[in-house]
Amino acid sequence: MNTHLSRRWFLKGTLATAAVAGLSACSASGGSGQSGSRTLVYVDSDTPPSFDTDTNGAQDTGENIVANCYGGDIVAFDKVAGPGGVLMADVLRPGVRGGIANGFAEQIDVSDDLKTYTFHLRSDVKSSLGNTLSADDVVWSYERNLALKQTGAFMANAMGVTADKQVVKVDQHTVRFELDNPSPIFLKVNAAKLYSGLVDSVAAQEHATSDDPWARDWLSQNTAGFGPYAVTDYRKGQYVHLDVNPHYYGEKPAYSKVVWNAVPTSANRAALLRAGDADIAVKLTPPQIKQAEQAKLSVTSYESNQIKSLQLNTKYGPLADYRVRQAIAYAMPYDEILSSVYLGTAKPVHSPLPTSYPGYTDEYWTYATNVDKARALLRDAGVDGFDLTVSYATNQYDDPLIAPIVKSALGDIGINVTLEGLPQATYFEKVYARKGQAYLMNNWPFVADPGYALGVYWKSTAFNNVGSWSNQQFDRLVDSMLVETADERRLALAKQAQQIYARELPWILLGNPGWHVAHSAGVSGLTWYPNNGVRFEDVKPA
């Protein structure tokens, strides 16, 4: 990592620790759009706790680093104009190749039975460390996914890859995936795969040890990808500096440097943007989004694929009974949450599938606020109140506001809630250790496919199934969807799965906060991707 930084660079990197007052001397250079402007200043609530998302669960900050430094896996999404002209990844186009760009591949061969996918890799793709992408990197990256058995393994499994032998090196620049079953969404999952792929295996293996054969320690603090950027300096909880990959094969991004500052308070992030000391600010509260618009700043928004929910540990006492979970759902004041927390910037959620995704139906959704029905369900379950701890991450703007509303609503039906606000890293450690009772969390299924979107959080074996819900019929439906090639049949299976979900209700679905990114009028090109992050290579001076 580069430790020899100019004073101007250092000042930008430490905005997160400075008082908001007096920051005008450190103005962002990117937002002005001036000639020669090369640095983009981005403010988020935190830095990633790790750059290795395959060992830290689904954390948005980590996913955003991987998207910018690794670029996903082999293929990528095309970009299209979405509703209102907002640029977006082309995730909704049907067909095996629909919406897919070749990415790091020069040519892709797909067998008629959708069981064999062969990639002829470009010869000009190099990592930020100068190593040329080869079939060995692809094979090693998938071996790592399967060995770690976390989210990367889930995504590989969703592609139909369950064993090392299925990823075959044909020659130095050709790799073949040999699946046991047809996979109509293989390329779509691959384009969204932000978990340990593709890794420069030459660099990673130089830092592997007998105790750490997959270089987890090194990759947690360093990037080794083939994408447009690389991390050059990092101070956890304060800043991340990214430089353009000097060997990047594609069009060079407009901004050669990105300074990512961690600014925990949303009001301070908004103030930096208004003062011209940041070009892009994310995770602003709805009032601050509206204030940004009034200040003639720009806000790029898209309905997105997000699910804000109260995730329940179905192994904890009364929560094992679906009637208790239903009671909690009927107790929730959905309208109050949408109006008082989100001020109309969020939308209701009536299915575990995002509204825009194929297969969505709200036919089985009966949950509207009904306290009497909630109490009756608890009586039917033989439950006369109980204690429940609701955990949430304090760095999220909405969770600290939603938490007391949940506490009050559940108190009305006899459930005594203790609120536990935690720092992001501590919170996620608890979530993925399955040690909590209930969690407020925001999730987003990367792939616009019902089999993937339903399986990633609720299949019994999914790493992200933090509530440990298990339903064998639901699992079978997900497995069938992942290999079913007939669209009509896939949608019918999705409908059955949503019916099971609506009855069992492992998570209480509260709303879709949407994707809202505030930015200077001096930058343009912000594009929505299914991880709801910001890809800096898309951003250009206006």
From TrEMBL:
Residues spanning the signal sequence: 1-18
InterPro entries in UniProt: SBP_5, SBP_5_dom, TAT_signal, TAT_signal_bac_arc
A family per Pfam: TAT_signal
Biased composition annotated in UniProt, kind: Low complexity: 28-55
Subcellular localization: Cell envelope
Limits of the Solute-binding protein family domain: 102-464
Keyword match Signal: yes
Primary localisation category: other
Keywords annotated in UniProt: Signal, Transport
Annotated spans, Disordered: 28-58
Gene3D superfamilies according to UniProt: Dipeptide-binding Protein, Domain 1, Dipeptide-binding Protein, Domain 3, Periplasmic binding protein-like II
PANTHER family: PERIPLASMIC BINDING COMPONENT OF ABC TRANSPORTER, PERIPLASMIC OLIGOPEPTIDE-BINDING PROTEIN-RELATED
Record family assignment: Belongs to the bacterial solute-binding protein 5 family.
UniProt-recorded name of the protein: ABC transporter substrate-binding protein
Species whose genome carries this gene: Nocardioides aquiterrae
